[in-house]
Specification:
With 139 residues, this protein is mainly beta. It has a domain of 96 residues. It is built from one helix and eight strands. The strands form two sheets. It has a four-stranded antiparallel β-sheet with strand order 1-2-3-4. A four-stranded antiparallel β-sheet has the order 5-6-7-8, with no helix packed on it. Strand 7 and strand 8 form a beta hairpin. The longest helix is centred in the first third of the chain and has 16 residues. It starts with a strand and ends with a strand. InterPro entries: Semap_dom, Semap_dom_sf, WD40/YVTN_repeat-like_dom_sf. It comes from Panagrolaimus superbus. This is Sema domain-containing protein.
Length: 139
């Protein structure tokens, strides 16, 4: 994963990690808001802590009367509300294993590596209709 232009850029594979990958752009502000929404729900006593992978999935206790700043990790909450995003581009028969992104000439340049040693270069352009990817061959 990497950060570019207020977005977290990540690669994801199928459930088995054997074939097919996707590149997704997550708005960092949306991640922050979702994180705090989960904390706020748990502080109000709604839902569970949501961290079963580390043995912490008990019911949330109402602690809304206690002050909480944005610089704290005191609650240790995972939550059940997730950040979701549609894939910006999908590769059906390539397994992506590395990614980086930069802004170049007002466009987002994404470089991805595959498990087979390929390097894929994509340019994300923004138009009035939204963003699109164009796969560019390396020169």
């Amino acid at each position: 994963m990497t950060e570019v232009d207020g977005h977290l850029v990540g690669i994801f594979t199928d459930d088995e990690g054997k074939r097919g990958s996707a590149i997704c752009f997550f708005q960092l502000e949306k991640i922050r808001l979702t994180f705090w929404y989960n904390i706020d729900r748990c502080r109000g006593g709604t839902d569970t802590i949501g961290l079963p992978h580390i043995g912490r999935d008990s019911k949330c206790i109402n602690k809304s009367h206690l002050p909480l700043s944005e610089d704290t990790c005191q609650l240790g909450v995972g939550g059940t509300i997730e950040v979701t995003q549609f894939a910006s581009i999908q590769f059906k028969e390539r397994l992506l294993t590395a990614i980086d992104a930069r802004i170049v000439l007002k466009k987002t340049l994404v470089i991805a590596g595959t498990n087979g040693g390929e390097i894929i270069q994509e340019i994300q352009s923004k138009t009035a209709a939204g963003a699109f990817f164009e796969v560019m061959p390396l020169m």
